[in-house]
Design goal:
Elements (H helix, E strand, L loop, with lengths): L18 H11 L1 H19 L6 H26 L7 H17 L5 H25 L4 H20 L9 H8 L1 E2 L2 E2 H19 L1 H11 L1 H6 L4 H27 L10 H11 L11 H20 L7 H22 L6
Antiparallel strand pairs: 1-2
Helix pairs in contact: 2-13, 3-8, 3-11, 3-12, 3-13, 4-5, 4-6, 4-11, 5-6, 5-11, 7-11, 8-9, 12-13, 12-14
Length: about 350
């Protein structure tokens, strides 16, 4: 009886990892790619179920709405990159509209001068935020929440709760004109995104901002002026909020003190959905822009699908919650660890 052979057959080499799985991992590790794909899927899904969704008029409305959400999100994302937060952007945008209208109507200032002074005032508020955060170590949450409350109160105090009418036509020209079929406010959003992208991706200052958000102490020891970089992001965020406020009163042709409530939530949601880490130091403008577009697709799509307006804030809050959860999961498995 012959002994059975103990030779083990040559092991078959395991199949190489499928390209599909590599692509899936790359997409999971890249929030920008993921949110862009989500934009395409959401747009296609809603368009297939709502006939008016892709009409030119509705797309133009989305372009104007996107300019408000997107510009606020860009400013908010700059602050978040440094590890901070700005809860005042919505209320500050509302106050900016009131200030510009009040200076134009009540004080008789020309519209361009009223706009310029409003942007300077908003920039000064951002400078105040930066000084309080960097010099006195006031938590960003606290100081911007104070500004949120004061800005809402000032808007009501200046107007006594009544809208300001009879604005200079230049305000409406700024917000209601088109270049071709594209609303001018949408072009402001594209311009703000392009400038922010260039600063963050192609300048030394942008790399320093990322470094400060990644590790503030290491950035300081490396000679980076951390206080200056952090302050500059708060100034930019406040100035962009002022720009949004000016555009909104032009679109409405009236300055309403109730405008701006809740916009900070939408701005933060767009930033986080676009891949901005709430811990700072991670995120790109392309993702932020895509996050703002995605939220606008969802918000406008709910109206096109005749979903109750009262449910929209619930959806926005849910989107923000899911985005934060996905950010933590992605950071744990694909990015650097965060405490």
């Amino acid at each position: 009886m012959s002994a059975q052979s103990t030779l083990v057959p040559d092991e078959v080499a395991p199949p190489s990892r499928p390209a599909v799985s590599k692509l899936a991992r790359r997409l999971a590790a890249s929030p920008e790619a993921g949110v862009i794909i989500a934009c395409v899927l959401v747009f296609a899904g809603i368009a297939a179920n709502a006939e008016t969704y892709t009409a030119v008029g509705n797309l133009q409305v989305m372009g104007r709405d996107l300019s408000q959400v997107g510009i606020l999100a860009i400013g908010e994302s700059l602050v978040i990159l440094t590890g901070g937060i700005d809860l005042s952007v919505g209320a500050l945008a509302g106050l900016a509209g009131i200030l510009a209208a009040w200076m134009n109507v009540n004080e008789g200032l020309p519209a361009p001068l009223a706009m310029l002074l409003t942007l300077v005032i908003c920039g000064g508020v951002g400078l105040w935020h930066g000084v309080m955060v960097t010099r006195l170590n006031v938590p960003p949450f606290v100081i911007t929440l104070v500004t949120y409350t004061v800005a809402q109160g000032l808007a009501l105090a200046i107007t006594s709760g009544s809208p300001i009418n009879n604005l200079d036509p230049m305000f409406s020209n700024l917000s209601q004109y088109y270049i071709g079929r594209v609303p001018v406010p949408a072009l402001f959003f594209v311009g703000a995104a392009a400038v922010a992208w260039f600063v963050l991706e192609r300048t030394y200052v942008g790399r320093q901002i990322y470094a400060v958000g990644g590790n503030k102490e290491a950035a300081r020891l490396a000679g980076i002026p951390t206080a200056r970089r952090i302050t500059s992001t708060y100034v930019a965020s406040a100035a962009l909020a002022g720009l949004v406020g000016i555009m909104v009163i032009g679109r409405m042709n009236v300055a309403d003190p109730s405008v701006g409530a809740g916009w900070e939530l939408t701005a933060i949601a767009a930033a986080v959905v676009g891949g901005m880490s709430l811990s700072g130091g991670e995120g790109r403008i392309a993702g932020i822009a895509a996050g703002a577009i995605l939220l606008e697709f969802i918000t406008n799509g709910l109206l096109a699908l005749k979903v109750s307006p009262y449910d929209q804030q619930v959806v926005q809050g849910a989107v923000l919650g899911v985005a934060i959860l996905l950010d933590r999961v992605r950071a744990r498995y694909f990015g650097r660890s965060r405490s």
